[in-house]
Amino acid sequence: MSWPDEYGSNFAKIDYQQALLIRAVLVQAGWQPRSINRAMIAIKGIMKVAVMTGNAEQRDVAYLSTISQLKSPEYQGSPLTAGQVSQLFRLLEYGRSVSAKRNLAVFALLLGTGLRRSELVALILDDYDRRKHTLLVRHGKGNKSRLLFLPKWCQEYLAQWLAVRKLQDGFLICKTYENGRVVTDVGVSVSAIYRLIKTKLAAIGIPNASPHDMRRTFITRLLEQSVDINTVRKMSGHADISTTTTYDKRDHQFMQRAAVALSYDARTQPHDARKN
């Protein structure tokens, strides 16, 4: 959030009541609990520095520390089903323009690697190893890097885009024009990706989906395919496994199938397990 300059010197004077008022205003403005909690943490941090520099009293920090964090409600969005993903790609494949091929690559990368939108638009051509079919995210969330492995179907869509983009230095996902012109040194904005996702999902009958559902689909699909959750955590770029669990949207049918598969019959166990 950008604050007017004249407010800057006043942060060190925020007391308990003012902090509660700020939180109430942010709630009223529609901020998400996580964003509000981060704002409150920032205010508390500023106050701690103010105490160290003699601009605030220790008791003020103590009072602020009693303000609890807001709990995040369970997100009501849901991952796309396999059928919806197939429908989405049928729609995308209908286009024949250069922009259409780029858009196919965008969705393939989002659904095939779980990239955040900010990570996607920051990628450059050199981040893609065409021999190993990997992507290097240099500055992910928390300024952490990670290596992503592309599934074969994702490689194919990316190859179609690179065939028209060419191998010039610049952004991997870059600016395109209706006349087919590609400008590799101009990237695509996060807001443009947001609009693209919302438009295409609405076109297949999912008008209220969040663009973040692309990432939720990636994580849930991996878990549905029995990839262990710690591996999913690493692939998603989560520092804490508890964050990964909030994306787990497997339904009751999945749990029902897991229960049906549960067995203590030694005859159904792997040979190595029976020896232990």
Walkthrough of the structure:
Helix 5 runs antiparallel to helix 7, helix 5 packs across helix 9 and helix 9 packs antiparallel against helix 10. The chain has two domains: 61 residues, no CATH class; 171 residues, Orthogonal Bundle (hpI Integrase, Chain A), CATH 1.10.443.10. The protein is globular, with a radius of gyration of 24 Å. A hairpin with a 4-residue loop joins strand 1 and strand 2. The strands form two sheets. The protein has a three-stranded antiparallel sheet. The chain is mostly helical and 276 residues long. The N terminus is likely disordered.
What is the strand and helix layout of this fold?
Layout: H1 16-28, H2 33-52, H3 58-65, H4 82-93, H5 98-113, H6 117-122, E1 128-129, E2 134-137, E3 146-149, H7 152-165, E4 174-176, E5 182-187, H8 190-203, H9 213-224, H10 229-236, H11 241-246, H12 252-261, H13 271-275
Antiparallel strand pairs: 1-2, 2-3, 4-5
In spatial order, strands of the major sheet run: 1-2-3
CATH superfamily of the largest domain: Intergrase catalytic core
| CATH third-tier fold name of the largest domain | hpI Integrase, Chain A
Task: List low-confidence stretches.
Answer: 1-8
Largest sheet: 3 strands, antiparallel
Label the overall shape: globular
Q: Can you tell me the CATH architecture of the largest domain?
A: Orthogonal Bundle
